[in-house]
Every structure is written in structure tokens, then in C-alpha cells.
Amino acid sequence: MTMKEDIAIRARQIDEIIMRMMPDITGPQKTIYEVMEYTMRAGGKRLRPMLMLETYKMFGGTSKVIEPFMAAIEMIHTYSLIHDDLPCMDDDDYRRGKKTAHVVYGEAMALLAGDALLNYAFETASNAFTYEEHLKDAAKALKILAKKAGVFGMLGGQVVDVEMEGQPLSLDEIEFIHKKKTAALIEASMMIGAILAGASEEQVQTIKEISRKVGVAFQIQDDILDVIGSEEELGKPIGSDEKNQKTTYVSLMGIDQAKAEVEELSEEAKSQLSLFIGEDKFLMDLITYLIDRDN
User: Fold this and answer.
1) Which of 67, 87, 210, 291 is positioned for an S-S bond with 266, CB 3.0–4.6 A?
2) Using CA of residue 96, residue 4, residue 65, residue 61, what is the dihedral sign?
3) What contacts 230, CB < 8 A, 6 or more positions away?
4) Crossing angle, helix 183-196 and helix 47-58, to 10 degrees?
């Protein structure tokens, strides 16, 4: 079995967990449930909940307390994509090979669906508090989820990205955006997995360092693919960074330097992760795939 096939199988298993927690499409407000489900079913590799689950298992976690957080992180990620695609942002018509929410349902309903998924993510994550033996760790995990999704994390990075659009950026400014806009949710995923499994504070901090490197490398690779990838493989338009006059690591440093940075971050992250990995090597393989992917 190839890594891509293995990921696809695990993604379907994660989908079952996520969709089980989605609201039924009924009631006067059923349109919003329909848009939420449309976007959640639009595909994707479910990499964030997969990273969360594998980190949880790596530290010995076995409870289903992880499942509400797995669903929540994917809902937050999906809401961010809905808003990214809006005409007032990147104005993209396709995501994961399907028409984006605002194209199918209109801009207002797409905006509301993003809002709905963000709110519903925390409603879903709060279900972890029904596991009384994990109350303290669930509280820590919820705090991480809120911070990494908000103004100190993903949202903060998006603000700087939007404000600086069309302006030349320094390498430090690009790295700030990458660490916040992209790496923050990957940090949240792996840190929550470690916390819920009972990892020590020192171990959680090491996981934070690893996941930040993974997240930055992931975003640089995404910027590389926006230049050299194909729309068919990526399931979304290429060249959007150039269209939106965004300064990226690639436009600033060039393809070769960008690839070298991805490789350096990847090796550092995997070297640190090797201290925790036991017999199950899937998490290491997943991180390698995540950084080195071609779609």
C-alpha cells in the first residue's frame, strides 16, 4: 500500500467520526446545515485531525476523548478555507476540485457557513468534557484550540497577510504569517493530541517546536506548488499568489532556496520527533508526506 492510499483510508475513517458529529439537515435554518455539510464533504486529506490522532496514539492515548477535538480542528480549518475563498479575500471559484461555497450558495450564505463552522467547532470540542477522567486535560486542550485559531494564531496571521497584500514583505514578515496562518492549526493538532494523552509539559513544548517547523515547511511547499504545480493535481487554481500580488518565500528567495528551507525544516522536525517514535512509524511517514507532497 502506498502512503497516499494509507492516508486515504485513514481519512475516510476520520470522516466517519466528523460527519457523525455534524448537525442533521432539518429545521427552518437547514440551509446553513446544508452549506456546512457541503464544505465538510468537499474532500481533503484530513491531515490535521490525523496528526492529532497519531500524536495522541504516540503518547499512549486510547480514549475517544480525542474525537470531538479531531472534528473541531477540521471544522475550524474548513471555515478558514470558506472565508479564504470569498470574493473579498482570494476570490477562488474552486477548492479541492469542487465549486466553492460562495459560488454554489452565494457570498452571504458562505460567510454564515464559515461563522457557523467556527462556532460549532467549539460546541463539538466541548463534548470532550463528558469524559470525566479527562476534564483537566480537555480544559488545557480547549485553551490551545481557542488560542491557535484566534488573534494570537491563525486569524492573526490572516490579518497580517491581508493587510500586507500587494506590498513587499521581508523574510521575517513572511515567516510570521506562515507561523500564524498555517502552522498554528498544525501546532494545535499535535499539541492537543499530546495533552489529551497525558504528555508532560516538556514533551508538549517539544511537540510545539516540531509542529511549528512542520507547519512552516508545509506552507513553503504550498507556495512552491502554487508556482510549479498543476490545477488538476491540486484541485484549486494555481498562480493565485501572483494574481493577488502576494510576496511569498518563493517570490522573495527563489524556488531553489525555498526547497532548501523545506528540506532543512523537515529534517529538524523529524530528528526531534524520532525521540518519541516507537514501533509505529506512520506519524513520521505522515509528516514526511505532508512536507514533501506534490499536491
Assistant:
1) 291
2) negative
3) 238
4) 30
The number of CA neighbours under 13 Å toward the Cβ of 46 is 28
State pTM to two decimals: 0.92
What gap in Å lies between CA 139 and CA 152, rounded to an integer? 18
Point out which residues pair with 94 in neighbouring strands.
99
Separation of CA 45 from chain center: 10
- Are the C-beta atoms of residues 135 and 129 closer than 8 Å to each other? yes
Q: Which of 33-37, 254-258, 273-277 has the highest mean pLDDT?
A: 33-37
**Cβ pair 78, 117 in contact under 8 A:** yes
Distance CA(266)–CA(52), nearest Å, equals 18
Show the cell assigned to 191: 499539541
Which residue, chain included where needed, has cell 499539541? 191
